[in-house]
């Protein structure tokens, strides 16, 4: 029965089709480098977001609910555009405030612009920047002075590049989501289903293990360590989680297997919560820097690690 469970594990790890039979860990099967920057590149996140507070907000959403993993990239695209509009709106307001003659400024479209409330001035400046970005202007507001014209030309040039990048990444994101859905391995039961025992059916129909196989991230798991008959497999999941498998291939009844955070790609000193997928329970004690488990002969244990601090 443990062999059946091991076979299910082999096909449930993200992107994997079967366990490697080699007794040597190759370079391709080496440590799983799941740093945050690698995951972001995989998710096609805009690099402009690396230093803004929205990164922390989105990270928390993804960590609490993996379903947010599909939508957070779209939130980030919108945030990039709004951040760009805010920056250019402030620049246009600064240029207008330097010239005391409102008749020779883009603010001439609104009477007594500088006597308005802060909210009105901010929205008007951002609106002017948005009309340039979306190329629907110029209408009620337009550049008047030479400085404003030069600034508008620079703005349009930079916005052309930004629009192209956002559109390209948006299309790539949509295509990537389609590829991930297609990439999820189909689940086939290679036995006579008429004679399947209840215990076997419970193993092959484990919803939590199947969820790992069908995870949205679609990154293949790797063998990250092997010592004798003990093996550790790990793969990244959506929501900054990690799937880990401890496997005992040998006849030794009990083997203590330890997975260090460096082996499975979790940052040092990260506190994680471990979910036992075979026992269907979350371990009460959080883990820091490593996870240790005792595995019986020809058996395995499978966990999903979720960062909590």
From TrEMBL:
<dbReference type="GO" id="GO:0004557">
    <property type="term" value="F:alpha-galactosidase activity"/>
</dbReference>
<keyword id="KW-0378">Hydrolase</keyword>
<feature type="transmembrane region" description="Helical">
    <location>
        <begin position="74"/>
        <end position="95"/>
    </location>
</feature>
<dbReference type="InterPro" id="IPR041233">
    <property type="entry name" value="Melibiase_C"/>
</dbReference>
<dbReference type="InterPro" id="IPR002241">
    <property type="entry name" value="Glyco_hydro_27"/>
</dbReference>
<keyword id="KW-0472">Membrane</keyword>
<feature type="domain" description="Alpha galactosidase C-terminal">
    <location>
        <begin position="227"/>
        <end position="305"/>
    </location>
</feature>
<dbReference type="Pfam" id="PF07885">
    <property type="entry name" value="Ion_trans_2"/>
</dbReference>
<protein>
    <recommendedName>
        <fullName>alpha-galactosidase</fullName>
        <ecNumber>3.2.1.22</ecNumber>
    </recommendedName>
</protein>
<dbReference type="GO" id="GO:0005975">
    <property type="term" value="P:carbohydrate metabolic process"/>
</dbReference>
<comment type="similarity">
    <text>Belongs to the glycosyl hydrolase 27 family.</text>
</comment>
<keyword id="KW-1133">Transmembrane helix</keyword>
<keyword id="KW-0732">Signal</keyword>
<dbReference type="InterPro" id="IPR013099">
    <property type="entry name" value="K_chnl_dom"/>
</dbReference>
<dbReference type="InterPro" id="IPR013780">
    <property type="entry name" value="Glyco_hydro_b"/>
</dbReference>
<keyword id="KW-1015">Disulfide bond</keyword>
<keyword id="KW-0326">Glycosidase</keyword>
<keyword id="KW-0812">Transmembrane</keyword>
<dbReference type="InterPro" id="IPR013785">
    <property type="entry name" value="Aldolase_TIM"/>
</dbReference>
<feature type="domain" description="Potassium channel">
    <location>
        <begin position="95"/>
        <end position="174"/>
    </location>
</feature>
<dbReference type="Pfam" id="PF17801">
    <property type="entry name" value="Melibiase_C"/>
</dbReference>
């Amino acid at each position: 029965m443990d062999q059946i469970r091991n076979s299910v594990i082999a096909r449930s790890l993200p992107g994997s089709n079967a366990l490697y039979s080699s007794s040597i860990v190759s370079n391709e099967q080496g440590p799983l480098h799941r740093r945050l920057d690698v995951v972001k590149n995989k998710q096609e996140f805009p690099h402009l977001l690396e230093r803004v507070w929205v990164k922390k907000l989105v990270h928390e959403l993804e960590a609490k609910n993996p379903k947010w993993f599909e939508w957070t990239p779209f939130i980030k695209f919108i945030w990039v555009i709004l951040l760009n509009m805010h920056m250019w709106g402030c620049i246009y307001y600064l240029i207008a405030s330097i010239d005391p003659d409102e008749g020779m400024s883009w603010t001439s479209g609104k009477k007594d612009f500088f006597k308005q409330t802060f909210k009105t001035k901010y929205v008007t400046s951002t609106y002017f920047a948005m009309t340039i970005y979306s190329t629907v202007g110029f209408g009620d507001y337009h550049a008047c002075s030479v400085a404003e014209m030069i600034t508008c030309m620079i703005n349009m040039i930079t916005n052309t590049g930004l629009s192209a990048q956002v559109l390209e990444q948006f299309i790539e994101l949509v295509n990537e989501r389609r590829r991930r859905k297609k990439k999820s391995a189909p689940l086939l039961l290679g036995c006579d289903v008429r004679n399947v025992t209840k215990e076997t059916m419970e193993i092959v129909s484990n919803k939590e293990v199947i969820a790992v196989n069908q995870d949205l991230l679609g990154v293949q798991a790797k063998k990250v360590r092997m010592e004798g008959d003990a093996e550790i497999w790990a793969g990244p999941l959506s929501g900054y989680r990690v799937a880990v498998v401890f496997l005992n291939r040998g006849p030794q009844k009990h083997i203590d297997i330890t997975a260090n955070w460096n082996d499975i790609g979790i940052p040092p000193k990260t506190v994680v919560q471990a979910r036992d997928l075979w026992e269907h329970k979350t371990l009460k004690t959080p883990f820091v820097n490593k996870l240790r488990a005792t595995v019986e002969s020809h058996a395995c244990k499978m966990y999903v690690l979720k960062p909590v601090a």
